[in-house]
User: Fold this.
Amino acid sequence: MNFHTRKWIKPEDLNPNGTLFGGRLLEWIDEEAALYAIIQLENQRTVTKYMSEINFKSSAKKGDIIEIGIAPKKFGNSSLTLACEVRNKMTREVIITVDTIIMVSLGDNGKPIAHGKTKIEYVKDRLTDE
Ligand SMILES: CC(C)(COP(=O)(O)OP(=O)(O)OC[C@H]1O[C@@H](n2cnc3c(N)ncnc32)[C@H](O)[C@@H]1OP(=O)(O)O)[C@@H](O)C(=O)NCCC(=O)NCCS
Assistant:
């Protein structure tokens, strides 16, 4: 799993209990999954279709640095299945896991379209191939 993104927990990210608000974390996860899928599938019209059970294992508090990891599980026809883990950057304690996130590639008509991808690609390789 690649942990590309780090976040710094600020006062505006907290719930009334003084810990990281779950809705904020889900927003970050959804954006991270979307970015990953858009880059991999080379289609900006890629949307979140499905998220499996979300398991909050531990919390984060103001000042903590967390990192968000995404791993591809399956390249489908129009879909890309991802897994996500968020952990504390300094302690590596797992904060949340999302087993399955399904992203779907859409055409101009808003319907699923085959993305033609079967494996991870790196942008640097795409650039040197040209
Ligand atoms: C995404 C959307 C176009 C898919 O429409 P749909 O009729 O379900 O499309 P399909 O049944 O053809 O499924 C498309 C793909 O998603 C997969 N999929 C759909 N529902 C799924 C589910 N519940 N679990 C797992 N995979 C699912 C299908 O297996 C298919 O994958 P494949 O093409 O790789 O085989 C439609 O549901 C939609 O517009 N949803 C709203 C998306 C959105 O607004 N998201 C929030 C903002 S980003």
Q: What stands out?
A: The mean pLDDT is 96. Residues 47-50, 76-79, 102, 104, 106, 112 surround coenzyme A (CB under 6 Å). The beta strands are 2-8, 46-51, 54-56, 65-75, 79-88, 94-105.
